Amino acid sequence: MQRARPDLTHFGVVAWVLGVTFVLGAVGQPLLFLASGAVNDLVVLVGAEAVVYLAGCALFSLRRPGRSFEDLFALRRVPVGLVVVAFLVGVFAHAPADKLGDLILKFFPSKESSDALAAQLVPHGPVHAVLLALFIAGVGPFVEELFFRGALYTGLRTTAGAASSVVTTGLMFTLIHFQPREWLPIFLLATCLGIVRASSGSLWPGVALHAAFNGSSLALAWLGPSVEARWLSPSVVAASSAGALVLLALSVRLAQKSELAERARALDEAEPSSGATP
After folding, report:
1. Phi and psi (nearest 5°) for 136?
2. What is the span of the domain harbouring residue 86?
3. How many structural domains is the chain composed of?
C-alpha cells in the first residue's frame, strides 16, 4: 500500500502564513478602507482579517481531500471543564503579558502607538461597543485559532512533533503582528495557546483562552487608566502569573486524564489521506 504523502511541513506553514498575510495587507485592508473610510476601526480591521483567514482556511481544506472538516481544523469534543480552565488561563495570563509589554515600552517608548491602540479600543457608542466586544473577543480569536492552531498546527502535527509544531505556529502567529515591541507578550500568549492545543487535541480550549485574553484587554480599556494601573501593580502581576501557571498545568493534567482529549490527540498524529498536498 502506498504511504500517504506528508500533509504539511514547517516551510509550508511559513508559506501559508506569508501568503495569507500578504492578501490581508495588500488586498483586504485597502478594499475595506475604500469601502468604509474606517481603516483604523478595529471592527473593520478584524472583519477584513476574518474574511481573509476564512478564505485561507477554505483553500486549505480544498487542498486536503479525504479529511473531515472537524478533524482538519481540530473542532473536536473535549470536556467542558477543560475549556473553562483554558478560559481562566487567558484571564490570568493577561496581566503578566501586559506588564511585559509595559516594560518594553519603557525601554523602547512609542507613545503614539500605545495611544492609538487605546483609542481604537474605546467605543463610539452602545452599538459600537457591542461590535467591538463581538469582533475583538469573539470573531478575531476564532478565525486566528482556526487558521493557526486549526489548519496549520493540525496539518503540521502529522509530520512533526507537538513541541516543534507549537513553536513554529506560535512564532508565525507572533511575527504577523508587525510591531516588534509586541512580540514577547504575543509569543507568551501563543505559547499558552500551543500548550492547550497540543494537550487537548482540540481547537476549543485555545479559542476560549484567546477570547478571554482579548476580552481582558477590552475590559481594561473600558474601565480606565486607574484600573489598568492597579492591574499592572507588582502584587497583581505576581499573583496572576502564578495563577496562570497553575491553571495551565491543571489544563494539561485534565487533558491527560480525559478520554476525549486522548482520542483527539490520537487524531492529530493520524496520517492524512494520499490526496493531501502542502
Report:
1. -75, -40
2. 10-269
3. 1
